[in-house]
Amino acid sequence: MGSSTTMEKAKVLVVEDDIHLLEGIRDILELDGYSVLTAENGSNGIEVLNNQSSPPDLIVSDIMMPKMDGIQFLKEVRKENRWFSIPFIFLTAKGERADVHRGMRLGVDDYVIKPYDPSDLLVKIESRLERHKSLNAAHNSGMASLKRQILTMLNHEFRTPLTFVVAYSDMLNNPGDQELSKEEMLSYISGITAGADRLRNLIENFIMLVELETESAQQTFDWRKGPIASVQGIFKEAQERVKDIQSDNHPVTVEIPADMPIFTGDVEYLTSAIALMLNNACKFSDTGAPIKLGASVANQEVTLWVKDQGRGIPKAEQEHIWESFYQIDRAMNEDQGAGAGLAIVKGIAILHGGKVSLESEIGQGSTFKITVPVVTEALTIS
Fold first, then answer.
1. pLDDT (tens digit per residue) in 233-289
2. What region does 91 belong to: left with phi over 0, alpha with psi -120 to 50, or beta?
3. What fold, for 216-373?
4. Looking at residue 379, what DSSP letter applies?
5. N or C: which end of the chain has fewer CB within 10 A?
6. CATH architecture designation of domain 5-116
7. How many CB atoms lie within 10 A of CB 348?
């Protein structure tokens, strides 16, 4: 019954009120190389957990115990963040199926029916530890990848506008022997303003991402949402916001059907979504390329869309572009930004009970869409 070197180092907490069975399980596990902690009931198990400098790698617990049974013990373990992910195995008699089902709903990982074969118990423990190890490795890999993405983005996206701000400020403060002309001063101030605006937008986008990942955005949406009878104002304000970001000239046309229904939404969030999609369209289109904003209605849904004639997005990339910090070949497309905009658009769509979608062909451009349901009950327009 030999285990791997990794498993030999694992620490297991065994909770069992039958002292003979408890000692038997401890001996089996120690012979197989495990470090074993023991407790005679759930309450005692909590005490043991609290007294450890580091939590055990796995818990094996009986269900029927005095003072605190296995179900309550599992509930208490899952309440604590430091113990939440510890694999948990129940020891159960054949007549305790209902308790096993309760445990499964509470997050128990596996169970072993008594009387059991020692080798079966060891296999269950090792398989759960290996599974936990694999999940941790995947999680750590994902976190490492996210950290790399954030660091790359910070290095490029924040340093570029900061360089503008610092460089132009330095030239204003240290003009040298020659006095600056009015045109030069205005040029430097314009550069500082552009860098500051870009920094402000980056920070606002990061704040929005954080809000969408928490209950903050949902709470804001719940108290701010209301009936929307026209999207003309949303499109106009979105264009104003992008005008401050993009210096390239992109003629924009707007297509809104005459029979637009009233729908429920948050004007501010929807304006932000359209502005982000419009900014994205400007960024990936050649100077002077036209862009269309529009709305359409079908199947009790309102779709707001932005259509460009830009580079287009490869099929393999299209399902990923809505992810936070996702960027398409940063080395080739240095202008693409932080990779937060479309993730925010998706989050805003979800707040509205809606969805996002994309139609794109390489060299033919892209159409980004946010679709929200039409509310059919009577609404009072304020």
1. 999 999 888 875 554 578 888 999 888 888 989 999 999 999 999 988 888 888 888
2. beta
3. Heat Shock Protein 90 (3.30.565)
4. -
5. C
6. 3-Layer(aba) Sandwich (3.40)
7. 27
